[in-house]
Specification:
The relative contact order is 0.12. The longest helix is centred in the C-terminal third of the chain and has 17 residues. The strands form two sheets. Strands 1, 2, 3, 4, 5, 6, 7, 10 and 11 form a nine-stranded mixed beta sheet that branches. A two-stranded antiparallel sheet has the order 8-9. It folds into two domains: 220 residues, Spore Coat Polysaccharide Biosynthesis Protein SpsA, Chain A (Alpha-Beta Complex), CATH 3.90.550.10; 79 residues, no CATH class. α2 links the parallel β1 and β2. The protein is an alpha/beta fold.
Length: 310
C-alpha cells in the first residue's frame, strides 16, 4: 500500500445538519482507515448545534488525512451535494452520510480497484453498503456483472458471455464518482421553497454517457432506520412536489421497462397535482404513458393527501 499512501486521489464528503451527536462515529472510521490518502469534506447545511465547534476541534488535532469544513445556509441534502461537488478537486469522490461510516479498508479497497481498472470512458464505480450486522444492503451484484452503461436504477441491463442479462437491483449502492465527469453535468436542480430533490440526478445522467464499474464489495456501513419511512416519504411528496416531478420526467423517458415508466408516470401525475401544475401532460416527457396513468395518479394524489392530513 505504500504507493497509495502517497496519493491523494479521493474525497469523502459528508453533508450534515444538526448531527453533531452522531458525527463522531463517522470521524472515528476516518481515523481507522488503513490508507489515509484522502480528504474528508464536511458540508454543514446550516446546523444550529455544535457541529462547527466539533469539526474545528478535529481540524486542530493532528490527523493523517485532510479535513475540510464548509458552512452554508440550510437548503436540503441536494444543495449540500452541489456545494460538495463544486469544492472537490480530487480525481474520485464518495459520499458518506453523517450517521454512516466507512469500513476500515474502504479507501484502500477503492484506490486499489481504481488503479487496476481505470480507463478513459469510466464515469463511476458502484460498490456495496452493508448494515452493522454485516448483511449487505439489498441485493449484491451478480459475479458476472463487471460493468454497465445506460441505466442503473432497479433494472441494470448488461452483457456477459455474449448474452444480454438484467440484474434486478434492490437496496442502495455506493457511488464512487469520477469527479471531473460528475461536474460535467449541471448541479442538482433547486426549486424555490423546496428542500428535497433525488440525489440520483447526476447518476442518471452519468450512466447514459459513461461506463460504470462494479466493485462487488462493501465500503460503507449504514444504519437501518425503522422510522416509518413510507409515511415520511408521503410528507416529502407534499413538501417537495416540483423536485419529485423533475426526477419522474427523467425516469419516464429513459427507464428500460414498461413497469418503471408507468410507475414514474403515476407518481408524476400525483406530484404535479400537489405542485398545482394542471398542465402536467404538456410538461411530460412521455405523454402517452402519462395519459394512461391519469386515473391511478389521481388516486395516488388522494392517498397522499389522506396520509398527510393533520
Amino acid at each position: 500500500m505504500k504507493e497509495l499512501e502517497n496519493m491523494n486521489l479521493i474525497t469523502v464528503f459528508t453533508p450534515t445538519y444538526n448531527r453533531a451527536y452522531c458525527l463522531n462515529k463517522c470521524y472515528e472510521s476516518m481515523q481507522k482507515q488503513s490508507c489515509k490518502a484522502f480528504d474528508w469534506l464536511i458540508v454543514d447545511d446550516g446546523s444550529t448545534d455544535n457541529t462547527k465547534e466539533l469539526v474545528e476541534k478535529w481540524i486542530k488535532q493532528k490527523t493523517e488525512f485532510n479535513i475540510r469544513y464548509i458552512y452554508k445556509e440550510n437548503g436540503g441534502m441536494h444543495t449540500a451535494y452541489n456545494t460538495a461537488y463544486a469544492n472537490i478537486d480530487t480525481e474520485l469522490s464518495v459520499n458518506v452520510d453523517s450517521d454512516d461510516y466507512l469500513t476500515d479498508t474502504a479507501i484502500e479497497d477503492i484506490l486499489s480497484f481504481w488503479k487496476k481498472n481505470k480507463r478513459e470512458n469510466i464515469g463511476a464505480i458502484y460498490a456495496l453498503d452493508q448494515y452493522e450486522d454485516g448483511n449487505v444492503v439489498g441485493t449484491p451484484f451478480p459475479n458476472d456483472l463487471k460493468e454497465f452503461k445506460g441505466w442503473g436504477y432497479k433494472n441494470i441491463v448488461y452483457y456477459s458471455g455474449g448474452k444480454k442479462k438484467v440484474f434486478r437491483n434492490s437496496g442502495d449502492k455506493k457511488l464512487i464518482g469520477v469527479t471531473s465527469v460528475i461536474n460535467k453535468y449541471p448541479p442538482i436542480p433547486v426549486f424555490e421553497g423546496e428542500k428535497y430533490h433525488s440525489l440520483y440526478y447526476k447518476q442518471h445522467l452519468l450512466e447514459r454517457d459513461y461506463t460504470v464499474l462494479i466493485m462487488n464489495k462493501p465500503v460503507c456501513v449504514v444504519e437501518y432506520m425503522n422510522d416509518g419511512s413510507s409515511k415520511n416519504m408521503f410528507y416529502q411528496y407534499v413538501r417537495n412536489p416540483k423536485g419529485f416531478c423533475n426526477e419522474r420526467r427523467y425516469v419516464m423517458k429513459y427507464a428500460p421497462s414498461f413497469k418503471l415508466k408507468i410507475e414514474a408516470c403515476i407518481h408524476y401525475v400525483a406530484e404535479s397535482l400537489l405542485a398545482k401544475d394542471y398542465y402536467f401532460i404538456g410538461h411530460s416527457t412521455n405523454r402517452l404513458f402519462t395519459l394512461i396513468s391519469v386515473v391511478p395518479g389521481v388516486l395516488l394524489y388522494f392517498i397522499i393527501k389522506r396520509k398527510t392530513k393533520k
